[in-house]
Amino acid sequence: MACASEPNAPVAPTVLPQVIAHRAGAKDAPENTLEAIRLSIANHTDGMWLTVQLSRDGIPVLYRPADLSALTNATGPVANRTVAELKQINAGWNFKDERGNYPYRNRPVAIPTLQEALRALPAHISVILDMKALPAEPQARAVAQVLTDENMWSRVMIYSTDSSYQKAFAAYPQARLFEAREMTRDRLVKTLLNEGCENTSSAPIWVGFELHRKLTVTEKFTLGEGTSLVDGTVWTPKTIACFRQQAPVKILAIAINNELDYQSSACLGIDAVLTDSPRKMMAIQARLKGKSLQCEALTNK
Asked: How far apart are CA 263 and CA 284, in angstroms?
């Protein structure tokens, strides 16, 4: 793949960004299930993003929302039920396919444990675990035990929108962590607003943030405050150059679900994209291999 880049912009890579299956492929099958993992593997995804909570008996399981009613035929928090009870719940109950049907209501799929999910993954597939439950320390301890038992530390990275997980996993020197989201967000906003490029990492870490993000800008003044809503593109040649100023930082672009955004990510030199449908995105990746992209038009924003 050849890309023309604007002056001072990051040079696009010679390979296309890796495709990471968001929640194991939430648009292709019930999210965070072994069925979604199986389909993503069949579609040759490069990596897997899995969402972790703790059961009542302290076992890491894959589930994202705060309440079971969001996706299943049960109600209440995951933390209120044991693994044995969670196994009786249909995690595909509310999954709707492209035709508007509910194909898993008569074909139940269970909420898997983290251990089951890791054992289902081939060795070449990388894994990102998104920590959702609080407090952080009990879950970090339980996840660390599974990663040790399965000898998976070298293949797994830890992500969370809550910075308390950075502290919780600090007790495990073998843990590979994404930069805290609040630090990534702060640096992105300051760079976009021309406040300078500050606190850049001197280590080759991973960072993750959306390519496009709805932002709220609040201006405070004597008689109150004013608020503006902005649809912002946050990964640009300028912000990427800032992040990579001191070290070869790896960048994951979140919420990439169409060909234009995938091409933009490729031209920007982004390392990986997080997508809801690996089936569609892997087909896009295959079509673009070896093609020349019009990168100047895509990244000159």
From this structure: 9
